[in-house]
Amino acid sequence: MWAIVVGLATLAVAYYIHWINKWKDSKFNGVLPPGTMGLPLVGETLQLARPSDSLDVHPFIKKKVKRYGSIFKTCLAGRPVVVSTDAEFNNYIMLQEGRAVEMWYLDTLSKFFGLDTEWLKALGFIHKYIRSITLNHFGAESLRERFLPRIEESAKETLRYWATQPSVEVKDSAAVMVFRTSMVKMVSEDSSKLLTGGLTKKFTGLLGGFLTLPINVPGTTYNKCMKDMKEIQKKLREILEGRLASGAGSDEDFLGQAIKDKGSQQFISDDFIIQLLFSISFASFESISTTLTLVLNYLADHPDVVKELEAEHEAIRNARADPDGPITWEEYKSMTFTLHVIFETLRLGSVTPALLRKTTKELQINGYTIPEGWTVMLVTASRHRDPAVYKDPHTFNPWRWKELDSITIQKNFMPFGGGLRHCAGAEYSKVYLCTFLHILFTKYRWTKLKGGKVARAHILSFEDGLHVKFTPKE
């Protein structure tokens, strides 16, 4: 027994020494950006994972920028990374997508969402298909023609229920609301009922494992997340198998179209469909529920903004022939100040403060060499607080958006991603938030009770939630 233990220990030490030597001896010709790589395997993951109580760029990144400049190297979750807060560098990397870089996630995220498979990393017809099917069901045309009434009904039902409660924790409750609405569009009304029962908490729990080493050992955060992921995927597989058994494949929902397209697209398999449902479902509800919570948290401290929002929505309501009639697409497009509030919230509290890309070949830029296969982290949130673009950048001021032109916004505001992969669900997020706020400000009063303390690490969370009391207007 001891011989086996000693043998295993020897192998482990030999591997560790080999890994360190490989880590120290990067075999390529060129100059890397300045910085430090931290410890072998772990790198500087723990420093970035440490929560901050500010919505600003994480202190780890700010400290590095102060020491090394706006472009530096590090190691996160076992991978070498170049981090950039430089706007010109970030725009250049975006333009290189499909030529020298590709969309990428750290290994942990890749395994959670199946992104280590080639279908989602491909920049060719597979990506075009994914974007097309997402826009077909969550894009502007689908929202305008079919889905807006369902979003409105979901918001009404939710607020009616919240108004019966002494206190509502907004983040988790909003996640359930958006998850249910999104799943109706994903898998149909009937099938979506099979996906409640705590699945939203399992989805949200996955966030905690994003910046961990992908070591699947019992007791680790990563192991728990993998178990939750498999349970969610098992439910999705049951729905898929039920739909296949019924022979129903139509364009009515996301799943139906994917099944229908399976006959004409060779890359579509059952596993492909399940992974796609899993990834799109997660992306839809998490960003919207977090943004809504941030909006209410900001509004609680800015009664002047609340007053203008109420005026905008009451004017829209009173202009209808039937004040209690449904929201129209034209009314949504007229909610200018509401959109400015959403933009300002996203500017200060980006749900996704950085974008990740992976080099597909060696890159020469700004005098530095970025080796092939390295991850590039574009900290887009740093541009959101640039005083050269935004006056008093740390102040919540929705009125600033009246003065900003479209070119300035396009170059300096990227809450929904950028480059070739501008978020296909951006319009869905805006429509959902505007619809909810319209019903809230025309039908209800609300008061913040407690909470709202932000914890920012690699993700945005609320340490003690945001607890609000909702009351119907007379």
TrEMBL record:
Compartmental location: Membrane
Cofactor: heme
Binding, heme: 423
KW RNA-binding (keyword) present: no
CDD domains referenced in this protein's UniProt entry, alphabetically: CYP90-like
GO biological process, one term: brassinosteroid biosynthetic process
Topology within the bilayer: Single-pass membrane protein
Gene3D superfamilies given in the database record: Cytochrome P450
GO molecular function, one term: iron ion binding
Annotated keywords: Heme, Iron, Membrane, Metal-binding, Monooxygenase, Oxidoreductase, Transmembrane, Transmembrane helix
Any Gene Ontology CC annotation: membrane
Annotated family: Belongs to the cytochrome P450 family.
PANTHER family assigned: CYTOCHROME P450, CYTOCHROME P450 26
Protein's recorded name: Cytochrome P450 87A3-like
Protein's organism: Cucurbita moschata (Winter crookneck squash)
